[in-house]
Write a structure and sequence with these properties.
- The complex is a heterodimer.
- By secondary structure, chain A is mainly α.
- In chain A, 54% of the residues lie in helices and 0% in strands.
- Chain A is built from five helices and no strands.
- In chain A, helix 1 (6-17) packs across helix 3.
- Chain B has helices at 20-29, 58-61, 72-88, 111-124, 133-136, 141-150, 165-178, 195-203, 241-246, 274-285, 303-317, 338-352, and strands at residues 5-14, 17-18, 34-36, 49-51, 100-105, 156-159, 183-190, 232-240, 253-262, 294-296, 323-325, 354-355, 371-372, 378-379, 384-391, 395-402, 407-411, 424-428.
- Chain B is of the alpha/beta class.
- The two termini of chain B are 14 Å apart.
- The longest helix of chain B is centred in the first third of the chain and has 17 residues, at 72-88.
- The chains are: A mainly alpha, B alpha/beta.
- The A-B interface holds A 14-19, 21, 39, 43, 46-47, 50, 53-54 and B 63-69, 124, 127-128, 130-132, 134.
- Chain A: This is Acyl carrier protein.
- Chain A: Residues 4-82 form the Carrier domain.
Chain lengths: 82, 430
């Protein structure tokens, strides 16, 4: 399975829960900014996980997903081998 | 000393106007928001007319974050609340968040959102159903979303009473202010104009089957044949009068009284309880019938309910004893939004000294014995107004609003009852 890119991930996040509230976050810093600061709550992450499964076949547990803190950590979990 | 509970802000999302002044201009000019449904083709249904909110651009009016998680009804509620808070001048950021409450009514929930998610459930399976369905559907969501968006952590409540619930919310908000919460955002908003919501509304059995927008909803008319459903409503900001005066706020008027009653069981020979609601709300407001300048009627537009409402008004105020109106003839019945929108109209009647009319052509059966304002608004001083609402299932609610002491909103006087100027000016009373 080909890797999911950060661009893919941010698109799925936006579809799931709306655009990033980036007024005070530079675009390059978004992947390492906390979901809380980006305005995404745990429901946003669960919805994102459901869409990642549908669009990319990636199966993530809700319990794992809500523990994540940044887009980069979510991307790493998505692309984890095995 | 100024006491009581006053309305300092109004936000309107109505089929004939977005924002309080748009709505009021349309109402006085007799502009209707009723038309053939455009959200879907209603051709397969027995009714095709609705009061639809037009020109509402949710993407322009709300943060992108709120769009995936909100039904259209909640979007209306959020915008109405934002307008009401801005109108009130309450400085939310510098007020203790526990001093700010939210108490709203909703009767229909998030039909359109839920309809979409049900379709996904049945065609794609449960994994495709939005996580936001968990709260987007339910009656408490407007209170919750308004609370979260503005950081209002005082009393948060929701009342469900079909078309009467909006007045119950206002009455409950008044009580919350009296018990010590200085500011409470209240009112109600509804929308269910997707095919499923429409089918559910028609199942209620009181909807007009007419396809003539000008003649479909004729409250108290000899040929009344049901109501037209609408969407939208109003959100009001209620404040302790003393606190409002201390911050220099101007009030539209006072929420002076509230009463609710419940009808006897179907089939009972006992009288329905609307009259009792009127008889209770007047003493609650410390008001005698003769002091009431206008009644905003519930106005179902069916012979049975219309005759019953006319009888209740007649019993308390006497034969043609008080002007009666129903501006909802121009919007349709808005469920939880109806009572709050009528309350807004009542407050604007007080501000501007004018009673809006039901459309020309309404012909009241003489035995109703009510003085219905028909065709053109009536210019006359209004100090006190009674708002009535009935919800299917037995709910009755009544609210009295009256001119507040102290600083009140005074609109430009209305010429020939056709138009009112948008800007309100402040006038010190006495």
């Amino acid at each position: 399975m080909s890797d999911v890119t950060m661009e893919d991930l941010m698109r799925v996040l936006a579809e799931a829960a709306g655009d990033v509230e980036t007024a005070d976050v530079a675009a390059a810093d978004v992947p390492d900014t906390s979901f809380e600061d980006l305005g995404y709550d745990s429901l946003a992450l669960i919805e994102t996980a459901a869409r990642l499964k549908r669009d990319f076949g990636v199966v993530l547990s809700d319990d794992d997903v809500v523990e994540l803190s940044t887009p980069r950590s979510l991307l790493e979990l998505v692309n984890r081998p095995g | 000393m100024v006491t009581g509970v006053v309305v300092t802000g109004i936000g309107v999302v109505a089929p004939n106007g977005l924002g309080v002044e748009d709505y009021w201009r349309a109402t006085l000019a007799g502009r209707s928001g009723i038309s053939r449904l455009t959200r879907f083709d209603p051709g397969g249904h027995r009714a095709s007319l609705a009061g639809q909110v037009g020109g509402f651009d949710a993407e322009a009016r709300l943060p992108g974050r709120l769009l995936p998680q909100t039904d259209v009804s909640t979007r209306f509620a959020l915008v109405a609340a934002e307008l009401a808070l801005a109108d009130s001048g309450v400085d939310v950021a510098s007020t203790c968040e526990y001093d700010l409450g939210v108490i709203t009514s909703n009767a229909l929930g998030g039909f359109e959102f839920t309809h979409r998610e049900f379709r996904k459930l049945w065609t794609e399976g449960p994994a495709s159903v939005s996580v936001y369905e968990s709260f987007a559907w339910f009656y408490a969501v407007n209170t919750g979303q308004i609370s979260i968006r503005h950081g209002l952590r005082g009393p948060g409540r929701v009342l469900v009473g079909e078309q009467a619930g909006g007045l119950d919310a206002i009455g409950t908000a008044r009580r919350a202010v009296r018990r010590g919460t200085p500011v409470v955002v209240t009112g109600g908003v509804d929308s269910a104009l997707d095919p499923w919501g429409w089918a559910a509304q028609l199942a209620g059995g009181r909807v007009s089957g007419s396809d003539d927008p000008g003649r479909a909803y004729l409250p108290f008319d000899v040929a009344a044949s049901g109501y037209v459903p609408g969407e939208g409503g109003a959100i009001l900001v209620l404040e302790d009068a003393g606190a409002a005066a201390a911050r220099g706020a101007t009030a539209y008027g006072e929420v002076a009284g509230y009463a609710a009653t419940f009808d006897p069981a179907p089939g009972s020979d006992r009288e329905r309880a609307l009259r009792r609601a009127v008889e209770r709300v007047l003493p609650d407001a410390g008001t005698a019938p003769v002091e009431v300048d206008v009644v905003f009627a519930d106005a179902v537009a069916l012979p049975g309910p219309d005759a019953a409402e006319a009888a209740a008004i007649r019993a308390v105020f006497g034969e043609r004893g008080v002007p009666v109106t129903a501006p909802k003839a121009l919007t349709g019945r808005l469920y939880a939004g109806g009572g709050p929108l009528d309350t807004a109209a009542a407050l604007l009647s007080i501000r501007d000294g004018v009673v809006p009319a039901v459309p020309a052509g309404v012909e009241v059966p003489p035995d109703y014995g009510i003085d219905l304002v028909v065709g053109a608004p009536r210019r006359e001083p209004v100090s006190c107004a009674l708002v009535l609402a009935r919800g299917k299932g037995g709910f009755n609610a009544a609210v009295v609003v009256r001119r507040a002491a102290g600083r009140t909103r005074v609109g430009a006087r209305v010429g020939n009852g056709a138009e009112t100027r948008a800007e309100a000016r402040v006038e010190e009373e006495r």
